[in-house]
Design goal:
This protein is mainly alpha-helical and 195 residues long. The protein has five helices and two strands. Strand 1 and strand 2 form a beta hairpin. The N terminus is likely disordered.
Length: 195
């Protein structure tokens, strides 16, 4: 049976129709007339609402990530304790790096959407670090191991900060704008322990 997504089949909007027989569903392609073609309801059934568009964007990103994992053979054997510690390291590194970015903000300037996004992400990552650390402790990972994982994350951030601030790089504004995405990618790679 085909995978169901939102209200209908992956390839159809699937929203209930007002006209026609009870139980009739929209047969337009999923996301028809929207910026999320192939996912979610069509424009006639709420596909252009901001909340629906955000959900569709997340679903598209999730599908692309899954395809990349399958295509590149990125799965790897990892135990639950190692996975938790890896996530603690990654979260700690992201929180440290984001805190540095927040400290660099001009406190006198009016907030911009980029500033608000940075502050929101900082809060989200802090919450994630807290949750992951708590789970690690609850499942019996030694508190010392969690602390070491957090310190390792700080070490990674310190290394990246030194590289980013190296005058030899002479980074432009556009290059600095790319740093958050690159940091996440490289933190993920750096925190993986060899299998």
């Amino acid at each position: 049976m085909p995978e169901r997504s939102w209200l209908g089949l992956v390839d159809e909007c699937g929203a209930p129709r007002r006209q026609g027989q009870p139980g009739d569903r929209c047969r337009l392609p999923a996301g028809h007339g929207t910026d999320h073609s192939g996912v979610g309801p069509c424009k006639l059934h709420g596909g252009s609402f901001p909340m629906v568009r955000r959900k569709a964007a997340r679903e598209i990103a999730q599908r692309e990530a899954q395809r990349a994992v399958e295509r590149l053979g990125l799965s790897r054997p990892i135990g639950p304790v190692e996975a938790l510690l890896e996530e603690v390291r990654r979260a700690a590194a992201m929180v440290d790096w984001l805190q540095e970015q927040v400290e660099l903000l001009d406190q006198t300037a009016p907030p911009t959407s980029a500033t608000e996004a940075l502050l929101h992400l900082f809060g989200v990552e802090r919450d994630r670090l807290t949750r992951v650390s708590k789970v690690a402790v609850e499942v019996g990972v030694e508190v010392a191991q969690v602390r070491l994982a957090q310190e390792y994350g700080q070490m990674v951030v310190n290394l990246m900060r030194r590289v980013f601030n190296d005058p030899a790089l002479d980074l432009t504004f556009d290059q600095r704008e790319l740093l958050p995405g690159l940091v996440r990618r490289y933190v993920t790679e750096a925190t993986r322990e060899p299998a």
